[in-house]
Amino acid sequence: MSLASTASDLSDLRDYAFEWALVDVETSGLVPRRDRVLSVAVVTLGPDGGQTGEFSTLLNPGCDPGPVHVHGLTAERLRGAPDFGQVAERIGALLEGRVLVAHNAQFDYDFLAHEFARARLRLPVARRLCTLALNRRVDPPTDDLRLGTLAAHYGVPQVQAHDALDDTRVLAGVLRASLREAAQLDLPLPLVACPPRQDPRFAPKPPKTPCAFRNPGRLTAGGPLVQGMKIAVTGETRTARADLVLRGVAAGLNMVGSVSGHTSALVTNDPSGDSAKARRARAEGVAVIDESAFLRLLGDVRPGTSHEGTAPAPATATTPSPSSPAPSLPAVPTPRGPGASEAAVPDVRAEPAPAAPGPKPGKRPAKPRGPLSGRRVLVLGGTHPDAVAARTRVVELGGAAAINLSAGVTDVVVLDGGHADRRLPRITALLLPTYDAAWLVAPVVTEAPGTGHRRAAAHVLPRGGVVDLPLRDGREPAHRWTVTASWAQQTACEIDVVAFVLDEDGQVSFDEDFVFYGAPENPGGTVRLLSDGPTEQTVGVDLAGLPPAARKVVVAAAIDGSPTFGDVGALHIVSGPGSSAAALAQATLDAATTERTMLLAEIYRRGQSWRLRAVGQGYDHGLGALARGYGVDVAD
Fold this sequence. Notes:
The protein starts with 19 loop residues before the first strand and ends in a 7-residue tail after the last helix. The strands form 6 sheets. It has a 6-stranded mixed β-sheet with strand order 3-2-1-4-5-6, sandwiched between helices. A 6-stranded mixed β-sheet has the order 15-26-25-19-23-22. It folds into 4 domains: 14-202, Nucleotidyltransferase, domain 5, CATH 3.30.420.10; 230-300, BRCT domain (Rossmann fold), CATH 3.40.50; 358-364 and 458-629, sav2460 like domains (Lipoxygenase-1); 376-440, 3-Layer(aba) Sandwich (Rossmann fold). The chain is globular, with a radius of gyration of 26 Å. It has 14 helices and 28 strands. It is of the alpha/beta class. Helix 6 (147-154) packs across helix 7 (164-185).
């Protein structure tokens, strides 16, 4: 496939004609609700790709500027610069009526959303486009998808990295080239709708401090409180609620906002009340005490077991606890490995089969050997079981099973009915080799014109496969890790990727450790939704920042609506050290039928190291029931 031109004229790309506002921000840190914007640049382009405006400024954040070695913006340089509120209206005028574009757009969008909220102004952005997500769809033959790497690939000059204005000018060239590549592949743009973000949850708030102690279980009749117990409060109290919570936290208790099967006790002066917490406590058999008893017990809280003193959890696949099903579900919800029959499904409490071995710590996993090693094969047509079998065979032969057409696709298998696929004419025009199902018996590969240079393929994991995360400088894992899930464009439903931060008991420490579209980061900012879109979403994990209580981060997907993953088809996951870095591992999770939620991957502690597992386990119930299994009280 030929490289796209970086010429500014896009007038021939009518399907990609928008008014664009390209944005780059340099910030004092990585957490939008806590950190501040230090500099901002906006470049506007017309539908033909020509530049129509430009603005940039340094900003005085009123705080420490953070990693000066990255952005070069010292407190001295920022002194005398305007604060964001003084330039917000000018920036808003450039964004109004245009599609916001950035590289890792959710990062820039979230920072702007918080800054506009602090200035008590509306962020006038209705849609955004992420050039990182767009190039992940295009899949150019580069070693990674960093802005500088893409600029070199597309022939865009870069003068000064991490300078907001220069990065935005570079972004303009990358956008133009990426749009031409997308047009060549006939790709729909991954435009994301941006709801208003002026509500209170976008105002700054301090992070919640994780409890230092492991949950010892339920409060027993006549027994003492123990550090680490999960305590909820409901109803009217004589002591201010905030004071009760502060006193509990000071005593080493885990004061939580909801009740689950793992709650130790509920404090209420009306045990027969009709609050959701009281009803749930009665249903779960959670101990109920009144305010006076709680205050008395606070005088003699027994020592608990520190998270740092516990042994690491065994390396088993995480499944929601069967003790906390949704009311309408059976007492023990049965997970289903996609495509497995009911009789073949193991009980969630049973030890799973040994996982595929990972590489030695600190080393990149060995590439699988086989005739399709390094190849990316797209399967068209066929019945659902036939397409699943074909993609499974691709992986067995050492290849990666593609689910979308991209520049990285090397071969196409056309099953029965595949000739009617709307992508086939484009595949033919690109001179990609196509085969029938018989080719997968003993494939012989040929190179399509222009595909001689490809990046090193990520390690292909089977369902249940495990890989050790490589050690940084041979000593410790890379701190920031991402898991990106992608799927074919959908029209009948939306798919949400979520994450749960779990302790030794396979439960969240508090509700805020459930990360989803409505709460895109946990209190410490260590697990976040980094990017989103109609065909992919990314979860980022700061391994160094996770508290000792965090043993696993589970990444899952849920369908919003009545369709199932059998209707959606395969999901593809890639994982690597950062959102733009080359992927270490990939997996195609296939064969789902009636499932509406699916565990995609988990990152878990193994001694002093971390591992990644491709899970691929589905459930027929919805996201609410999955969350309750992990101890999160949510409404369906």
